[in-house]
Automatic annotation (TrEMBL):
High-level lineage: Bacteria, Bacillati, Actinomycetota, Actinomycetes, Kitasatosporales
Full protein name: Flavin reductase (DIM6/NTAB) family NADH-FMN oxidoreductase RutF
Regions crossing the membrane: none
Origin species: Streptomyces candidus
GO biological process: pyrimidine nucleobase catabolic process
Keywords: Oxidoreductase
Gene3D superfamilies hit by this protein: Electron Transport, Fmn-binding Protein, Chain A
Amino acid sequence: MTPQSALVPDVAVPRPTGPAPQAGPELLRSVFRQHAAGVAVITAAGRDLRPVGFTATSLNSVAAEPPLISFGVGTGSSSWPVLAEAEHIGVHVLGEDQEALAATFARSGADRFGAPTRWRTGPEGVPVLDGVLAWLVCRVVARVPAGDHRIVLAQAVAGNPSADPSGRGRPLLYHQGRFNALRD
């Protein structure tokens, strides 16, 4: 029998030269610029029923049973005071042609729900954006402190997996500090 090491060619493994960058905010940002992420918009309605929302690239599927998702939100975000108390939130997966919508919800001080944004009040009173690839309405089950952010865990209660009437189904991505689309 041949030892396992005999199956692996003898290749020189490059070693890093110099000291590794110190871990901190800039290192984290630099590393995650290399990571392509899907783009979503998170929405909620305040007690005064005014909608809030923001662009998120931290959306994750957590579990299928029960159907749980998570996302991060900064506690300094203008949406945080509403999200800190909201019982339900909306999650909207954006299509490759919705860069302007993503930019609107990412811009501080923007009228995010004014024209040309199209939306309606959905299940549980949550603002639901029209024309997105897919959406969920979720019940918030936890808000976990994580530095200057909170990780929100929420259970899906309603949604539409193919809300885009064109059926294109191609997601908007965020990579290298800008919005991108998939390439064939």
